[in-house]
């Protein structure tokens, strides 16, 4: 009798799951649309986002109230996103079972919806940031912390506004980052509106190109990693003598029959 009483309470909207509240089922958030012997769960952000769940599966679940501002899914169709595994693409389908991404070049990649959420997708449509590092030679150390960063920042700002328009470029910042082993490095940070999300990779390449053009114009040298080779010297005269007394095995030795 007690199990049936709990089911009756659930159907009467008096149990741990109540209509209009939010719960997690199979790793996804759902709104409890109606309760009955077959309850209805819905997710407005998913295509085909309606499920009919037997009452026995609802037993033991717990729902909670929501303020109405919580997102039902991190993306929508046509949103551009980046996942933790490095995948970058546009969402073309998202259903309770799978999410399909359209990658640059026309390739499509499919995830189980729960696995897609585990990848912690970043939605680029509300705005995104592109960062890169760029280094110049130690020959310019005297002006490295005073003159270089403003010149980079001015050139990058002018180029991006000319390319994409002022409304799409939110902020450009260049800062001295570190005195590295063979270069003086700068960190470039650029914020853009979501309408440029599909051009993020192009923007990354464009930043490097602009920095190279600035170096060419200012006659700043761009360094490359250097490798220094040190030749070990004998520790003492005795070591040198041992080297002479014991020539390498491949060295020519006189024949014992030679006079």
Description:
- The protein is α+β, with helices and mostly antiparallel strands and 259 residues long.
- Helix content is 25%, strand content 28%.
- A 5-stranded antiparallel sheet has the order 8-7-6-5-9. A 4-stranded antiparallel sheet has the order 1-2-3-4. Strands 10-12-11 form a 3-stranded antiparallel sheet, covered by helices on one side.
- Strand 3 and strand 4 form a beta hairpin.
- Helix 4 crosses helix 5.
- The longest helix has 19 residues.
- The C terminus is likely disordered.
The parts where pLDDT drops under 50 for at least 5 residues are: 249-259
Binned, the helix content reads: 25-40%
Overall number of strands: 12
If you compute it from the alpha carbons, what radius of gyration comes out, rounded to the nearest whole angstrom?
Answer: 33 Å
Q: Largest sheet at a glance?
A: 5 strands, antiparallel
């Amino acid at each position: 009798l007690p199990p049936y009483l709990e089911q009756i309470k659930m159907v009467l909207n008096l149990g741990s799951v109540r209509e209009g509240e939010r719960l997690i089922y199979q790793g996804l958030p759902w709104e409890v649309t109606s309760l009955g012997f077959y309850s209805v769960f819905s997710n407005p952000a998913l295509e085909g986002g309606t499920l009919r769940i037997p009452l026995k599966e609802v037993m033991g679940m717990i729902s909670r109230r929501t303020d109405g501002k919580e997102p039902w899914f991190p993306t929508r169709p046509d949103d551009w996103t980046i996942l933790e595994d490095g995948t970058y693409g546009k969402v073309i389908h998202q259903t309770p079972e799978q999410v399909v991404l359209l990658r640059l070049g026309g390739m499509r990649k499919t995830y189980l919806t729960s696995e897609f959420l585990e990848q912690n997708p970043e939605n680029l449509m509300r705005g995104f940031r592109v960062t890169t590092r760029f280094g110049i030679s130690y020959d310019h150390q005297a002006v490295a912390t005073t003159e270089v960063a403003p010149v980079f920042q001015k050139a990058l700002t002018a180029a991006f506004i000319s390319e994409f328009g002022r409304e799409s470029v939110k902020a450009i910042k260049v800062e001295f980052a570190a005195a590295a082993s063979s270069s003086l490095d700068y960190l470039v940070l650029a914020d853009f509106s979501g309408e440029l999300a599909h051009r993020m990779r192009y923007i990354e390449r464009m930043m490097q190109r602009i920095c190279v053009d600035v170096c060419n114009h200012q006659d700043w040298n761009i360094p490359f990693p250097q490798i220094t080779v040190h030749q070990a010297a004998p520790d003492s005269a005795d070591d040198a003598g041992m080297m002479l007394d014991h020539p390498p095995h491949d060295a020519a030795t006189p024949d014992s029959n030679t006079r």
